[in-house]
Task: inverse folding
């Protein structure tokens, strides 16, 4: 289970003293099989003051050709407001 950041310093703005903060949470993994590396990452960011949110997912793969060559591919997706 991913663990979200909890120790965030808050900044007060304006005369209202409103707190501005962000919350970030993410989980990722990578696996290696005989020269093939596969990886993935998912993160979510939230602006707690203005209720803004964004989600991001990324993934990729890499193959190691003997002796010193590699081929790789990567993809990233971002979605405002989840």
Result:
């Amino acid at each position: 289970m991913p663990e979200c950041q909890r120790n965030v310093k808050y900044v007060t703005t304006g005369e209202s003293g409103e707190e501005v903060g962000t919350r970030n949470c993410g989980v990722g993994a990578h696996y290696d099989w005989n020269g093939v590396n596969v990886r993935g990452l998912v993160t979510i960011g939230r602006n707690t003051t203005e209720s803004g949110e964004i989600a991001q997912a990324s993934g990729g793969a890499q193959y190691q050709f003997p002796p010193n060559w590699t081929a790789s591919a990567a993809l990233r997706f971002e979605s405002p407001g989840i």
About this structure: The CA atoms of residues 55 and 79 lie 5 Å apart. The mean pLDDT is 81.
